[in-house]
C-alpha cells in the first residue's frame, strides 16, 4: 500500500478506519450506563452503534482493517461485538483512562503510521447514526483526495433544523470541487444564532468525522499540541500487547493533556478543509436526537411493538421488557430498562445528564448509572434475575469454546442447572459434563471452573446462597483473559 | 341478639358487617388486574384495601364477625388476606359469577338473617379509602338507630370538590338529629352540574355504604326487586359449604338480574334515609383519586422512595420494582408493574378502563390485564422470574404448615433449590426433608408433593425445563384445597 501511495495514490488505495469507542456519555440513561455506554447499545434491536460503524468500514475495496481505540473497561465489549458480526480489527488500542479525543486520535495515528507512514486515515466516532446515502462514499473519495494533497479534512453536514446541540462550521471559499476552506468554527449556539446560521446557508454541522494522512496530522500535532504528541508517543512506545489488545502505557498517556481534537488541532490548524455533505446524520446526543432519527409513525411517535400510543403525539418510548401504554401525552420520552425508568419532556432531554449526576451522588441510586442487569464478560455474561436476602438467581450464558476462570468463593455456595447446551464443570480437580436438565452443586470454598465445550451457547441458571453474595467474593486461580 | 333487639336495641348490640369483595375494577391498571383486583392490593405498601376494611370492623364492642361476599376466583385471596391480619370471618360467601351488588347484598343479608333475623347490617365496599376520623363511628351509631327505626340508611359524604366521578344525593328534611330524608339521587354529573351541587351545599356523595335491618331490607327487595330476592334465596337454599366457604348455587344466582343495589332498591324505596358525614373518603375509582388521597409533597407529588421527581408537579408515580425518574412533567401518572407501564395524564385517568379493553382485545397483551407476575395460591404463591424458550424460573413461597397438591406433569421436569426454610418433598411415595441450600430433582411424570412442615416461610427457586411449560400441564391427584 505504501508503494501504491508513493507512485501517486489511486482509487484502489484503501483507507485505514480509526474507530473511537471510548466515550462514556450519560445522556441516554437509563439505557446508556458507565459499564455499557451508548456505542455498545442497540437502540433498534439490531446491531449496536459500534457494530454499525464497523459495518460502514467493512468494504475491503475501500477500507483496510479498522483500528479501534477504546477505554480499558470496554475491551471485551469491543472484541465481542466485533466478533459477533465477523469483523477482525487490525488492532484494539486500550486507553488506561479517558483523556478526550486529541490524545486518543494521536495515539491511534501513531500506531497506524508504524505500519504505513503514508496511510490515509478516516476517524469515526462509534456512537453516531449515519445513512450512507446519499453521497457518503463519494464524499469520502473527495475527502481522501484532499487529504492526499495535505489537508486535514472534516465533514460538515448541511443542517436541516436550528439545532443547538451541535457545533457549526462556517464554510469558506471552494478549494477544489467539493472541498472548501473553513471560515471559522462556531461553538454550540443558542437557538437564535442556530436559526440565523440555518437561514444563512453557509454553515454546516461539525460531524466529528475526519480524514487525513497520518504524517500531515502528526506534523500539526507536533506544532500545535506537542504535549499531546509526547504523551501519545510514549504511551505507544511503552505500551504492551495484552492478549488481543494493545495497552497504552498508563503513566505516559496520563501525561498527555485531556483535550478534544477540535480544540487542540482543527480549530487552530491552517491545513483544515471541510467537505460539505448532506446524508442523514445525528450524534444521538440525547433522547430528542434519538426520537428525530427514529421511524416515526403518522402521529410522530417512535416505539417498538411493545408500546401502545393512545392519543399521544410526537413521543418516544423504548422499553427493554415491560409493555408500555402512553396515554394522552405529547412530546414525551419514556425509556424503561429492567431496573430504571426515565420519563420526561423531549424538549428538555439535555437534562438527563444532570439527572444522572444526581443519581450518582446517592449511594442507593448510583448503581443504576453504572451497570445494567445484564453484564457482558469475555466468556459470555450473566443477567441478575432475582435478589433475595440470602440468595441470588442469575442466568449465565457461556459462548461456545469459552471458559470462566478457575475460581473459589468464601461466602457462597452455588447451584447450577443447565437449561441449554452442555457444560464442562471442574470441581476440586474433578471434571464432568453436565447437560440440559442436569444440575450440579458447588459447596462454599471449592475450586471450580465452568466451560462450554460445545458448538452452541451454554445457558444455565445459577442459584447462589450465602451470607455475602457480592461480585468481589471471587478468588481467581487461573484465567484465560488475564484477570487473575 | 335477637332477644336484645326485641327488648329495644341498646348501644351494646353489635352490628354485622357485610363486606363486598367481588369487584373487578380495571381503572387502576396495571396494578389492578382480573386475577387480583384493587381491593386486594396495597397501594401504600401496608395492608390491602380489603384488609383495611376488615380492620375497620374489627372492634368486637361494635361489630360481630364479618360476612364477606366475593367472587369464586378470589376465595383464596380473601381467606389468606383475612388470616394474615388475624381476622376470622363469620362466613365467606362465593358468587359463582358477577351479578352486580343487588343480588350479592341480598344473598349476604339472607345469610345473616338465618343466624339473626333482626340483625343490623353494615354493608361496606372493600375497595374504598376511608379515614375513621372525624365522626365515623358516631355516624355509624346514628345510622344504626335510624335502621332500628325501619330506615335503609346510606352515608352521604360532604363533597370537597366538584367531582364528576361520583353519584350525588340531594339531602331532604331532617328526620331526627343527623338523619335526613333523601330528596333525590343524582347520577355522575358533568363538571358544571358538579360545581353547582358543591356550591348549593345540599348535596352529598353517595358512598356506597349502607346500614339497615335485615328484615327491613328484604321486605323492600321483595317489593321492588322480587326476581333478585328469588334468585338470592334459591342460591342460598341450594348453596353448599365447601371447605371454609359457602358456595352460592350457580344456576339460581345466575337467574337473579344483574343490577346495582342503588338502582334496584335505594333509588326507589321510600324507607331510605341519608346520614351526612364529613370524614375523608374516596372510592379510589381512578389514578386521579389515588393521587388525591395520597401523601402529597410540597409540589403535590405522590411517590415512594424509589421515585425521583425533577421539576415535576402534581404527579403520581407508583413502581413495584424499577427506580423511576419523572423529569419536567406536571399532572402525570406513571404506574410501573414488573411487566407493564402506564403513563398518562391524571386529568384523563378515567381512560384507563378503555385502555384495558383495548389491551384485552389483543391476544398478545390480554394476559397483562389478567394476571400479575406474582400469583397467590391457597398454599402461598409464586413469582414468574424468568421465561426462556424451553425453561422457566419461578420463586415459590409456601406458608408454614401448608402443602401443595400431589401432582404430576407430562411435559416438564423441575429442579427445586431451597433458599429459605425447610421443604417436605414426596417423590413417587418417598418422602424426604430438603433444607436451605439443598436441591431436589423431579423428573417428568413423577408423582410429587411439596409441603412446608416448619414454622417459617419456605422459599425455593424452581427451574422448569421441557417442551411445554404451561400452568395447565398439571394432574392433581390429591389436594387439601379441593382442586382435584
From TrEMBL, chains A, B:
InterPro entries: GMPP_N, Man1P_GuaTrfase/Man6P_Isoase, Man6P_isomerase-2_C, Mannose-6P_isomerase_type2, NTP_transferase_dom, Nucleotide-diphossugar_trans, RmlC-like_jellyroll, RmlC_Cupin_sf. Pfam families: MannoseP_isomer, NTP_transferase. Belongs to the mannose-6-phosphate isomerase type 2 family. Its EC number is 2.7.7.13. It catalyses: alpha-D-mannose 1-phosphate + GTP + H(+) = GDP-alpha-D-mannose + diphosphate. PANTHER family: MANNOSE-1-PHOSPHATE GUANYLYLTRANSFERASE. Residues 17-298 form the Nucleotidyl transferase domain. It is an enzyme of class 2 (transferase). This is mannose-1-phosphate guanylyltransferase. One of its GO terms (biological process) is GDP-mannose biosynthetic process. GO terms for molecular function: GTP binding; mannose-1-phosphate guanylyltransferase (GTP) activity. Keywords: GTP-binding, Nucleotide-binding, Nucleotidyltransferase, Transferase.
Amino acid at each position: 500500500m505504501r508503494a501504491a501511495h508513493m507512485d501517486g495514490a489511486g482509487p484502489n488505495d484503501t483507507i485505514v478506519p480509526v474507530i473511537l469507542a471510548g466515550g462514556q456519555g450519560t445522556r441516554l440513561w437509563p439505557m446508556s450506563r458507565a459499564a455499557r455506554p451508548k456505542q455498545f447499545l442497540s437502540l433498534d434491536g439490531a446491531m449496536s452503534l459500534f457494530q454499525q460503524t464497523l459495518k460502514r468500514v467493512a468494504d475491503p475495496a475501500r477500507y483496510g482493517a479498522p483500528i479501534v481505540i477504546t477505554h480499558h473497561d470496554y475491551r471485551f465489549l469491543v472484541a465481542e461485538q466485533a466478533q459477533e458480526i465477523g469483523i477482525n480489527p487490525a488492532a484494539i488500542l486500550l486507553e488506561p483512562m479517558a483523556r478526550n479525543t486529541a490524545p486518543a486520535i494521536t495515539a491511534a495515528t501513531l500506531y497506524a503510521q508504524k505500519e504505513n507512514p503514508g496511510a490515509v486515515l478516516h476517524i469515526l466516532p462509534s456512537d453516531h447514526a449515519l445513512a450512507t446515502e446519499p453521497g457518503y462514499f463519494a464524499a469520502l473519495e473527495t475527502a481522501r483526495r484532499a487529504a492526499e494533497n495535505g489537508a486535514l479534512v472534516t465533514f460538515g453536514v448541511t443542517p436541516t433544523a436550528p439545532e443547538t446541540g451541535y457545533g457549526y462550521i462556517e464554510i469558506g471559499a471552494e478549494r477544489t470541487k467539493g472541498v472548501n476552506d473553513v471560515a471559522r468554527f462556531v461553538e454550540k449556539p443558542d437557538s437564535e444564532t442556530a436559526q440565523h446560521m440555518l437561514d444563512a446557508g453557509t454553515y454546516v454541522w461539525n460531524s466529528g468525522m475526519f480524514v487525513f494522512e497520518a504524517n500531515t496530522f502528526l506534523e500539526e500535532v507536533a506544532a500545535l499540541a506537542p504535549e499531546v504528541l509526547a504523551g501519545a508517543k510514549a504511551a505507544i512506545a511503552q505500551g504492551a500487547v495484552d492478549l488481543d489488545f494493545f495497552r497504552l502505557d498508563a503513566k505516559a498517556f496520563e501525561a498527555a493533556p485531556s483535550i478534544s481534537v477540535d480544540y487542540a488541532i482543527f480549530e487552530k490548524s491552517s491545513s483544515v478543509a471541510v467537505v460539505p455533505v448532506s446524508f442523514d446524520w445525528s450524534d444521538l446526543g440525547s433522547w430528542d436526537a434519538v426520537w428525530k432519527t427514529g421511524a416515526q409513525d403518522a402521529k410522530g411517535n417512535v416505539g417498538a411493538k411493545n408500546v401502545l400510543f393512545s392519543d399521544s403525539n410526537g413521543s418516544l418510548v423504548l422499553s427493554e421488557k415491560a409493555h408500555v401504554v402512553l396515554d394522552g401525552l405529547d412530546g414525551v420520552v419514556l425509556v424503561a430498562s429492567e431496573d430504571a425508568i426515565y420519563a420526561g419532556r423531549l424538549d428538555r432531554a439535555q437534562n438527563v445528564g444532570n439527572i444522572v449526576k444526581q443519581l450518582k451522588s446517592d449511594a442507593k441510586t448510583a448503581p443504576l448509572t453504572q451497570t445494567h442487569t445484564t453484564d457482558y464478560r469475555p466468556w459470555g455474561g450473566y443477567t441478575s434475575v432475582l435478589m433475595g436476602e440470602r440468595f441470588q438467581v442469575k442466568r449465565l450464558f457461556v459462548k461456545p469454546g469459552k471458559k470462566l476462570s478457575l475460581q473459589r468463593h468464601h461466602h457462597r455456595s452455588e447451584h447450577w442447572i443447565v437449561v441449554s447446551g452442555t457444560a464442562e464443570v471442574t470441581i476440586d480437580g474433578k471434571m464432568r459434563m453436565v447437560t440440559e436438565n442436569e444440575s450440579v452443586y458447588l459447596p462454599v470454598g471449592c475450586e471450580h471452573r465452568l466451560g462450554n465445550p460445545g458448538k452452541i451457547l451454554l445457558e444455565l441458571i445459577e442459584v447462589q446462597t450465602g451470607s455475602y453474595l457480592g461480585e468481589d467474593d471471587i478468588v481467581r486461580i487461573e484465567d484465560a483473559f488475564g484477570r487473575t
